[in-house]
Write a structure and sequence with these properties.
alpha/beta; 6-stranded parallel sheet; 7 helices; 39% helix
Amino acid sequence: MERSQYILAFTGASGAPYGLKLLSELLKRDSCVDTAITPAALLILKEEVDLTINSAEDILNYLNKSYKGNHKGKFTLHAHDDLTSPLASGSSLNKKMIIAPCSMGSLARIATGVSSNLIERAADCVIKEAGELVLVPRETPLSPIHLENMLKLSRIDVQIVPAMPAFYNAPKSIEDMVDFVVGKVLDALRIENDLYKRWSGES
């Protein structure tokens, strides 16, 4: 069976654990995951989870240490500014992309078709090739500009999954709250998961 292929990008918004957990879940499912990380996201990864990244191995070592399970998928780290990467071409086989977390700057540039780095160019390619793009913005409060940009993308079938943890599932830890958001992202991609307790209508 051919492996599923995804692009997962980290940009400069708070919420590094969302992207890392999502990467872990995709690799556990034996997927091929191409990743790019902006310089601002590298700083946030260091600040929020004490992860310094100099190579793909740094990320894989972190996943193996932090998350149980076999990360058997294929993982490739691309330079955020490498516009010669296959991800920068519409002929790439990667038609499913997630940006988690997604900064409002990245979201705005994607909404206006501006490609200042590989992540934004890859998102542009996914949109123009009628692929699946899921953005996980983390910002509050939201300005009219933020809302207009999200609405513009939503109208062309980009899925907006804000990092908004729920409380009906009685989370006991930060990990539970991260799992809820990541579960919702996997739902958006139609990937079966049991990362959070689903509402049954019973109190």
